[in-house]
Amino acid sequence: MKKQWHYAPIGDATSVAELTKELGAPYAALARVLVQRGLHTLSDVKAWIPGVSISEIDPMAMADMPVAAQRLAAARENHETVVLFGDYDVDGTTAVSVGKLALEKGGWRILTYIPDRYKEGYGLSADGIDWALAQDAKVLVALDCGIKSNALIADAQDRGLDIIVADHHTPGATLPPALAVLDPKREDCLFPHKELSGCGVGYMLWRAAYSTAGLDPLKLDALQDLVAVSIGADMVPLVGLNRGIVRQGLDAINTSPRPALAALLSHRAEGPITLQDVVFAIGPKINAAGRMRHGQLAVDLLTQGNADILAQLSQHIESHNLERRETEREVSLAAQAQAATQSDRAGLVLVGAGWHKGVVGIVAQRTVETFYKPTIVLTLYEGKLSGSARSVPGLDLYAILDETSEHLLQFGGHRAAAGMTLMPEHLEDFRQAFDDAVKRHWPAAARFPMQHVDTSARIHELHEGLCTLMDRMEPFGMDNEAPIWGLEGVELTEVRQLSEGKHLRTVLRDPQTGATLPAIGFGWGDFEANGPVQAAVVLGWNIFRGQKNLQARILDLQA
Predict the structure, then answer these.
(1) How far apart are CA 1 and CA 142, in angstroms?
(2) Which of 87, 162, 204, 355 is the S-S candidate for 179 at Cβ 3.0 to 4.6 Å?
(3) What is the DSSP string of 37-58?
(4) Is residue 429 within 8 Å of residue 344, measured between CB atoms?
(5) How far apart, in Å, are the Cα atoms of 330 and each of 228, 356, 359, 360, 540?
(6) How far apart are CA 414 and CA 430, in angstroms?
(7) Which of 112-121, 307-316, 487-496 has the lowest mean pLDDT?
(8) pLDDT digits over 306-342, tens only?
(9) Number of DSSP helices (H) and strands (E) in the chain, helices first
């Protein structure tokens, strides 16, 4: 589908002129983007770049943190067993891994539990609570889950298991009756950094527990690399504290990478490790363990110190990731064939009896990219339909599921992604209710794919000096994306197709000035144009055999 370009609002002209003067005339294009993003002076930029350091943070400002930290300190003092329960995705498994490494180092007795995607499903589970009690555990920390598990938590508390919830999802109307509920999104929580990952919330707890137990929380600074993985993979905003953690974490990954992460990055291209590497190289492999086998494998990998065992675990995860890719391809073909029969619907609900539960979230995202409609992909397992949903930009998926929850057994998630379970007999009613709700919340005029563009630019403005300066603004991510430049009226020259016609390599040329820019377009191999085009691009480097050259990556091309 052809995208509609949407330019970001133009910033204040006076501020742009002043910042351009500070940066230098060759960086006028960057000045336009920085002012759009609220950075009006060079001092603003320098203050923003590092984010907020963990050393500036008081975890005790989070609601219920003193109670939670004191209970963990008491568990250490009394040699009680603490179970760390986390979801099977990247955020959950990194949260459990960071907790295990932190608390075992501090002298706690720790056991870990990751639920089985098929047998237990998403979130805190009865099986997990039963297992913790069978191990004579006295405390269970629910990481990246638990904020809506009111009944399970009430039962666990009654049975003598103290529950600490460390979650980042939106709470329901009533908080669970846990010993402590840590969630920056609580209405009564004064902690200023509201958009932590689930692993990030847990990390605040481990630092608070260290302080309360008389230990030095600075000894946990080295774990910011794994917290950074959770931030990148879970797509939380890359501002403030999240930005500070990711910068510290990426620095550690580049200078002295944790053996587990080095193993997962062993096949990547040359050059510095960026947040994009974390998202696209590390994240999917960690996720593959929970998708295809069991999430505990990811925890075992991330916390492993033995080199031989680590090599074996990384090989297993690599093979699971290859299996995941093939399974995803097969399910995507079937799901998109079904989606093509629902052209009259604004919201898609796709169902397959044999579809692998571990890939339905990825398949939902692929379907959104193809059809530009919010999509739910469900599979039948043990008499119930369960699956994942992905939204389109600007549409609050969580609110829509909340409106249609009368047809669901359970659901959870956020604006962009969610999971749910329902009975097969409620499928058609839910499908209709979902479609109706999408139509109410998503005006017809908005049902076209959009291409965000930060600012229009000329090719001569996109030079190596600009790219070098932008390197200092890394990492880019959610709420701080790499600038997208709109080039209009440019020519495609030296066109070559790559990977059997899938991709496009070209040199963009400004016919007025003759300025050129090498570019690559993944998935644009079949694009044809006889005249000038407009191209939305991001700027970066092509690093090959030690050579570093400027290269644009094409996001959209239109004749």
Answers:
(1) 42
(2) 162
(3) TT--SHHHHHHHTT---GGG--
(4) no
(5) 32, 10, 10, 11, 33
(6) 19
(7) 307-316
(8) 777 777 877 777 787 788 888 889 999 999 999 999 9
(9) 19, 18
Of the candidates 335, 393, 338, the one whose C-alpha atom is nearest the C-alpha of residue 364 is: 335
Q: How far apart are CA 165 and CA 383, in angstroms?
A: 30
Four-way CATH pick for 4-48+451-558: 2.40.50.460, 3.40.50.2300, 1.10.10.10, 1.10.600.10: 2.40.50.460
Terminal CA-to-CA distance of the chain, rounded, Å? 14
Mean pLDDT value across the chain: 92
pLDDT digits (tens, 9 = 90+) for 542-557: 988 778 999 999 999 9
Domain ranges of the chain: 4-48+451-558, 54-308, 342-446
DSSP label at 326? Answer: H
Q: Estimate to the nearest angstrom the gap between the alpha carbon of 37 and the chain centroid.
A: 21
Would you state the pLDDT for residue 352? 94
Query: Measuring CA to CA, which residue among 182, 183, 126 is closest to residue 159?
Result: 126
Is it true that domain 342-446 has CATH number 3.10.310.30? yes
Bigger pLDDT: 233 or 129?
129
31 CB-near residues (< 8 Å, 6+ apart): 16, 19, 20, 23
Task: Kindly report, residue by residue over 381-410, the tens digit of the pLDDT.
Answer: 889 999 999 999 889 999 999 999 999 998
Main-chain dihedrals φ then ψ at residue 137, nearest 5 degrees: -70, 145
**pLDDT above 90 for 19:** yes
Q: Global pTM?
A: 0.86
Instruction: Give the helix ranges, DSSP H, for 87-194.
Output: 90-105, 126-134, 150-158
Q: CATH assignment of 54-308, given 3.30.300.130, 2.40.30.10, 2.40.37.10, 3.90.1640.30? A: 3.90.1640.30
> What is the spatial distance between Cα 519 and Cα 258, in angstroms, rounded to a whole number?
34
Q: For 442-462, b where at least 16 C-beta lie within 10 A, e where not — what string?
A: beeeeeeeebbbbbbbbbebb
Q: Averaged over 72-85, what is the pLDDT?
A: 98
